[in-house]
User: What shape does this take?
Amino acid sequence: MAHAFSFAPSGYEEQTRPIIKLSRHRDPVETLWTFNATRDHDYLILPDGRADIILRFRHGSDGRCKDIVPTLVGPSSVATVVSIGRNDGFVGVRLRPGRLGILGHAANLRDRHLSGSDAVHCIGALATIPNSARSVQILIDDLLSVVADVTAIKSDAAVDTIDEALDHVHRSGGRIGAGALAKTLGLTPRTTHRLFLRHIGMGPQLYAAVLRFQRAVRLFHRGLTLTQTAHEAGYADQAHMTRSFRRHCGHAPTNMPEVDLGSMPLS
Assistant: This one.
């Protein structure tokens, strides 16, 4: 049977084409997204290990975007409840895992939500965002200019090693151990851990746990039983999976409320 998950609320759209180009490295932006709320609601946002740079605003009756507030959401390992009102709007860019080094030491942002002046303090270019804009498209252009400015200033010299590490973690479905990963990369476990903290925001073991949790949620949504889901997602047993669910979202698999998921690749 199917289970009651909503993977994206009404009014949410993503654009995954290349957004920002760097001379040496691939586009740091995984997704450009917009969300226009049609109701007052508390949304449960599941962790996906990514960071988002967001502009939140109110839709004015004249079509303008008003009361714009810049927000920086760090890489998440636990779920967050966000209260959103009817006519609230958002434009955001979701950075690829491994590209968070452009924001400084990524571990300093883990499970943090910075708004207004706090976000500007972290990303100075956000100070150029006005309080209102004529349209959502103009706001999108302004946000992409900020991201381009940030990526032009800071580069990710370790990107090749990070990409290789992430490839191993994702291909294993989060099953590869931290020691085995370090050996595969030709690094010490300590160096690998530092690399993940700086550029991803969490150690390899926690990142793999978040990936495994996301995979389990999707498998359960597709109709697998709890036992099947636990096996396919790489948990030792159903109890192990239930503990993971409680850790990362505060709910057992059979008691999940309506949620919105990030787009963590599961291959």
